[in-house]
Amino acid sequence: VQLVESGGGLVQPGDSLRLSCVGSGLTLANYAIGWFRQAPGKEREGLSCISTTDGKTYYRDFVKGRFTISRNNAKNMVYLQMNSLNPGDTAIYYCAASEICGFGVTLYDYWGLGTQVTVSS
After folding, report:
1. 44 — phi, psi (to 5°)?
2. On the CB side of 92, how many CA atoms lie within 13 Å of its CA?
3. What is the mean pLDDT of the chain?
4. What are phi and psi of 36, to 5 degrees?
5. 103 forms bridges with which residues in the sheet?
6. Rounded to an integer, what distance in angstroms lies between the CA atom of residue 31 and that of residue 120?
7. Closest Cα to residue 21, out of 45, 46, 2, 42?
8. Which of 31, 89, 91, 120 could crosslink 39 through cysteines, CB 3.0-4.6 Å?
């Protein structure tokens, strides 16, 4: 059972990226899926979550309007579309699965290994 993130990379300020999270041995449609990030020397922080039943989405204030979370249950994938990226968004980005949405890391039972996003000119 694992989650695998992809789509990270090196981009310039103002650029966009779409991160993907796929479940292996885990049906993502049965879980709330959250996106987190961790910058060097900082704690892991929750960014967004999409619930399992009604697809309701939640965002931290500092990513609202820039990041969009979505699901494709047929592909067993969850995405994070990130626009207007800035150097402060540089971090390792993780997806995680939980029974309910929330921004606390302890809520989540399954984690991916992360994908690096670097925003630099």
Report:
1. -70, 135
2. 13
3. 96
4. -130, 170
5. none
6. 34
7. 2
8. 91
The pLDDT, as a whole number, for residue 54 is 83
CA dihedral over 67, 103, 70, 74, signed as positive or negative = positive
> Distance (Å, rounded) from C-alpha 53 to C-alpha 41?
35
pLDDT of residue 55: 87
* pLDDT bracket for residue 1 (50, 70, 90): confident
HSE toward the beta carbon, residue 20, CA cutoff 13 A: 10
**Residue environment code for 34-65, b if the CB has 16+ CB neighbours within 10 A, otherwise e:** bbbbeeeeeeeebbbbbbbeeeeebbeeebee
DSSP secondary structure string, 30-65? GSEEEEEEE-TTS--EEEEEE-SSS--EEE-TTTTT
What stretches of the chain show up as alpha helix (H) in DSSP?
none
Q: How far apart are CA 96 and CA 32, in angstroms?
A: 8
pLDDT digits (tens, 9 = 90+) for 60-109: 999 999 999 999 999 999 999 999 999 999 999 999 999 999 999 999 99
